[in-house]
């Protein structure tokens, strides 16, 4: 044990081992006071050895660098300490509460309203914030697994966190025992690639009637939500557009409207009208369609002048807009002169022109083209299209119309179908079929109803998860659900081990095998059953569809019972959980910012002076100085002199 009593408190620190696999002795380093007080020099902070609850010691070096522009500290941890400081267990426990059909709700504090009651892992994950900056770095790292899965697949956030927790927990055990973390991580990475290939082999295409099952499982076995999403997709098609809105009554409802969606978002976030959702939403707006680059801001003056006079929003869809023209829209929008937004036209070349023509047919607009003899500077409001509602995000645009152009749309669709019949080239047929689906598909709007605001928010999150899971199933197919697909993949790991190079890589594969059972164990635990017993019984049966149905607490053919997961969600969970775990196992240092305290004294505002002394003191209790001023003989003589002059 090293004694630190002989070293001054302000000028000592610990330097310890940076790798669990190669520990070194701890030595004390002292800094002279002259070195410590130099400008932009390191300031060593004394850190005694900290003992954890289990008796393990934290060997920590913390050095502060201060200069005119920055201040930060960095810390080294050994083995288990980094994982404990990162609070992976805390995140997994909070998010894991919601996993499975019998998962419970989480109550979230809301500063500006009633508390939120949610059953969505992604929402819970966003709210986790720790006070200690080092611990918070770990939370942010593990948060990436769930957030990335939710962004790409729309569901599976909780499963990603639980898998990452399993990989980190099992991996830290072997790294602390002296194994090389780099080789361990290589074994985990090779196992991941092999398991993703196996997942594609067992995946199959989802049937139409199974879409309701996929949606219901994602919504917590709520078949009311599952059937509503299935009905919406049945009417607009598998690749149709389904939007979720707040309803005006207590019951859910489905509405099919005319409209179109394309993959282009706003050109600047300054056009956003809803900061929370980061969307720009307009009602009863006009569309300006330009099949060229807008290079001169003055060309839009005539269009914008009519928008100011008649007070309607304008959305510009053009091939491109120069910064000067874009600045004109942003500046006037921020000043409140008019409501506006700008979008880059979808696709390129000939497909871009077709896209603009389809939007023009749908909205009743006229596309501005030089070859048609129509220029932007001479165009008036007669070339503008009309939309009942228009919602723009950073990467997509939704146009909803009132159906007044239905006859023109049907005429264009019939023309496109004749072109499909007369075209032999496959690529051209594909493009024409896309245009037909875009014009004739329509948009399904799910209006969510509830008794209270808290219930409404929870239902919206459930429906969003169910819709995203259904779309993921349409893209890459489905596998058996209930965590059973991950258990079946764990049985393939033993064959994968034979292909690995060394024992440490095989240990990495074994870590992956153990982590794959974590989601099933947690689903069983949330249902009040022993997870180890469930895992053992499921793996004892050779039927790949045999598993544990937590909603009714029985073992059965899960595919026949409608318990299935989208393959895309499972794949994203595996990939992103592995990515985060690899980062944790190969990291040994943490660098965080230091919050500098403001020591400048706060000045108290001066008290306002009264208009007269009578406002503070009664007439008979004036201060002596005031009474003396009133009895001053010089002032009395001056007053008499003034009166005589008058």
Summarize the structure.
With 646 residues, the chain is an alpha+beta fold.
Mind describing the biggest β-sheet? 6 strands, mixed
Mean pLDDT: 79
> What fraction strand?
15-25%
Structural class per helix/strand content? alpha+beta
* Chain oligomer state: single chain
Low-pLDDT parts are 1-72, 75-81, 612-623, 625-630
| Name of the top-level CATH class of the largest domain | Mainly Alpha
Please report the distance between the alpha carbons of the first and last residues: 98 Å
- The overall number of domains is 4
CATH homologous superfamily placement of the largest domain: GroEL-like equatorial domain
Question: Over the alpha carbons, how many angstroms does the gyration radius reach?
Answer: 34 Å
Organism: Dipteronia dyeriana
InterPro entries: Chaperonin_Cpn60_CS (IPR018370), Cpn60/GroEL (IPR001844), Cpn60/GroEL/TCP-1 (IPR002423), GroEL-like_apical_dom_sf (IPR027409), GROEL-like_equatorial_sf (IPR027413), TCP-1-like_intermed_sf (IPR027410)
Protein name: Chaperonin-60 beta4
GO molecular function: ATP binding; ATP-dependent protein folding chaperone
């Amino acid at each position: 044990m090293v004694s630190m009593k002989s070293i001054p408190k302000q000028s000592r620190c610990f330097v310890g081992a940076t790798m669990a696999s190669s520990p070194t002795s701890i030595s004390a380093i002292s800094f002279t006071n002259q070195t410590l007080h130099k400008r932009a020099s390191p300031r060593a902070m004394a850190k005694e050895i900290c003992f954890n609850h289990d008796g393990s010691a934290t060997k920590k070096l913390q050095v502060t660098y201060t200069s005119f522009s920055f201040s930060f500290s960095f810390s080294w941890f050994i083995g288990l300490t980094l994982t404990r400081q990162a609070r992976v267990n805390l995140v997994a426990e909070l998010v894991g509460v919601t996993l499975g059909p019998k998962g419970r709700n989480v109550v979230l504090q809301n500063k500006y309203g009633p508390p939120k009651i949610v059953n969505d892992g992604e929402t819970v994950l966003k709210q986790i914030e720790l006070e200690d900056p080092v611990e918070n770095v770990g939370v942010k790292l593990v948060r990436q697994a769930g957030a990335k899965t939710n962004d790409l697949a729309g569901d599976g956030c909780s499963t990603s966190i639980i898998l990452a927790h399993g990989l980190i927990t099992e991996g830290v055990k072997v790294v602390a025992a002296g194994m090389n973390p780099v080789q361990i991580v290589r074994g985990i990475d090779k196992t991941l690639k092999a398991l993703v290939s196996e997942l594609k082999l067992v995946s199959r295409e989802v049937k139409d009637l199974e879409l309701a099952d996929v949606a219901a499982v994602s919504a917590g076995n709520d078949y009311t939500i599952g059937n509503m999403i299935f009905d919406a997709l049945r009417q607009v098609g598998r690749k149709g557009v389904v939007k979720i809105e707040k309803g005006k009554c207590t019951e859910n409802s489905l509405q099919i409207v005319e409209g179109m969606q394309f993959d282009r978002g706003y050109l600047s976030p300054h056009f956003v009208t809803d900061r929370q959702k980061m969307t720009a939403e307009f009602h009863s707006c006009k569309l300006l369609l330009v099949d060229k680059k807008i290079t001169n801001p003055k060309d839009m003056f005539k269009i914008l002048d009519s928008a100011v006079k008649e007070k309607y929003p304008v959305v510009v869809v053009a091939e491109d807009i120069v910064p000067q023209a874009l600045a004109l829209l942003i500046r006037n929008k921020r000043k409140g002169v008019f409501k506006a937004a700008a979008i880059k036209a979808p696709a390129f070349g000939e497909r871009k022109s077709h896209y603009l023509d389809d939007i023009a047919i749908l909205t009743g607009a006229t596309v501005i083209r030089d070859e048609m003899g129509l220029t932007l500077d001479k165009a008036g409001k007669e070339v503008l299209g009309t939309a009942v509602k228009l919602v723009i995000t950073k990467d997509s645009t939704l146009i909803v119309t009132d159906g007044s152009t239905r006859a023109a749309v049907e005429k264009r669709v019939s023309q496109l179908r004749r072109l499909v019949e007369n075209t032999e080239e496959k690529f051209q047929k594909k493009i024409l079929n896309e245009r037909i689906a875009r014009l004739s598909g329509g948009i399904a709007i799910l209006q969510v109803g509830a008794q209270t605001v808290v219930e409404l928010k929870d239902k919206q999150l459930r429906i969003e998860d169910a819709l995203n899971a259904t779309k993921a199933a349409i893209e890459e197919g489905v596998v058996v659900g209930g965590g059973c697909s991950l258990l079946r993949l764990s049985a393939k790991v033993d064959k994968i081990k034979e292909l690995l190079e060394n024992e440490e890589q095989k240990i990495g594969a074994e870590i992956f095998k153990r982590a794959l059972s974590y989601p099933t164990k947690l689903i069983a635990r949330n249902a009040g059953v022993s997870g180890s017993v469930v895992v053992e019984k499921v793996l004892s049966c050779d039927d790949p569809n045999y598993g544990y149905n937590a909603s009714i607490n029985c073992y059965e053919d899960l595919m026949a019972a409608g318990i299935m997961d989208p393959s895309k969600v499972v794949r994203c969970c595996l990939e992103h959980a592995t990515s985060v775990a690899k980062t944790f196992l190969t990291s040994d240092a943490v660098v965080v910012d230091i919050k500098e305290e403001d020591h400048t004294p706060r000045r108290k505002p001066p008290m306002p002076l009264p208009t007269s002394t009578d406002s503070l003191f009664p007439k008979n209790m004036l201060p002596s100085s005031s009474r003396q001023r009133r009895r001053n003989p010089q002032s009395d003589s001056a007053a008499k002199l003034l009166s005589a002059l008058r």
